Amino acid sequence: MTSGWTDERMDDLKHQVDELGRRMDEGFREQRREVESRFERVEGRLDGMQQSIVDLHGAVSGLHGKIGDLHGTVSGLHGTVSSLHGTMARFAMMLVVALIGLTATQLGLILTQL
Known about the structure:
This protein is mainly α. The chain has one helix at residues 7-113.
């Protein structure tokens, strides 16, 4: 069986191939627009995440400063407590000496009365 390609069949095939090419081009353009749109959304999310990281860094830096201030306050309190400890130790020693003196005085009074 022999089939011949007439000009009409060739023109019909050309139109079908042209239509297929046009649909493919349009499909590729649509895919490109969709991919670009998705990339733009991803870039927007990344920009938001980057801003969140910058904000978090600022908050952590602020906390670092507050922790430094707190360390200074605790160091100052340590000095105050150490000073208070020394005062209390001297007071206790003075009290012991006073009690020994009182006891000696009382003992001296008792012995002079005998």
